[in-house]
Amino acid sequence: MKLSDLLTQEPISGSPAVLSDELRLDGVSHLLEILCDAYGDLYNSGIVTSIMIESEITEEFYRCVQMVWFDRGPKTLTPHHEKSHGRRIEGRGKTPTIDVCFRDWDPNHYFGIECKILEDKKSRYDYYVDGGVCRYIRGDYGKKFPTGAMIGYVLTGDSSKIINEVVNKVNKVPHCSNMNISSPVNGFTKHYESIHKRKIGVSPFNIHHLFFNFT
Predict the structure, then answer these.
(1) Scanning 16, 29, 91, 132, which has the fewest C-beta atoms within 10 Å of its C-beta?
(2) Considering the chain, what percentage of its residues have pLDDT values greater than 70?
(3) How many domains is the chain partitioned into structurally?
(4) Which of 44-53, 65-74, 93-102, 111-120 has the lowest mean pLDDT?
(5) H-helix or E-strand spanning residue 187
């Protein structure tokens, strides 16, 4: 299976001619199931604490993703950690990276997963949107694919309140449909979706928001 095999043939604007364009629900669901099952393994391990930084949590999460993936993931797709995009950010010494992705033979054709710590703090909400959601919308991440994921690590506080605040923030992003709760994934219920228009890359772009609670 290639990543393009998860797609149907219905046209979406901005997509490369070599790719079919709209995700099949069963293909996306399989990727989301792997992510949610990996979260369950990580949660049960008890490794994650409230003092850990984002990169430490993501390293442990990626290890769990690999374990689940190698057990039942499509073998012609591969999970990658911290994929670089080969472009320097103005005034900084490193290229933008997406935390985790599932890709095929084309390095720019992938299902991306961007991870952020969430607490009841304005700075955390802003970074989830500006440093995650908006990078997808600008085409910094996932330009050649019509869907991706955001993961919020909820480390402290009331998870319901935090999720509601994220929803309010995302709904204020220009050219965004309302962010709504979506179907459970293998019993995991904190799954939301938002749809965004993009000027660069495949449009519209669908973001699956998964909120992983570690409180």
Answers:
(1) 91
(2) 80
(3) 1
(4) 93-102
(5) none
| β-pair type (110-118, 147-154) | parallel
173 vs 98, 133, 156, 178, 192, CA distance in Å? 20, 9, 25, 10, 16
Residue 193, helix vs strand vs coil: strand
Distances (CA, A) of 197 to 8, 32, 115: 19, 22, 21
Are 194 and 25 a contacting pair, CB within 8 Å? Answer: no
Residue listed under structure tokens 């199931």: 33
- Give the separation between CA 156 and CA 143, rounded to whole angstroms: 33
Integer distance in angstroms from the first to the last C-alpha of the chain? 37
Query: Which tens digits make up the pLDDT trace of 69-110?
Result: 988 866 667 888 887 655 544 544 455 688 999 887 777 788
Q: 94 lies in which domain range?
A: 3-213
Q: Say how far apart CA 174 and CA 154 lie, in whole Å.
A: 25
Number of other residues whose CB lies within 10 A of the CB of residue 146: 23
Per the CB < 8 A criterion, the answer to whether 1 and 76 are in contact is yes
Whether the CB-CB separation of 194 and 181 falls below 8 Å is answered with no
Work out the burial of residue 13: count CB atoms within 10 Å of its CB; fewer than 13 is exposed, 13-18 middle, 19 or more buried. exposed
Three-class secondary structure of residue 61 per DSSP: helix
Q: If you write DSSP's letter for every residue of 2-31 in order, what string do you get?
A: -GGGGEES---BT--TTS--EE-HHHHHHH
Single-letter residue type at 167:
V
Q: What are phi and psi for residue 129, nearest 5 degrees?
A: -80, -55
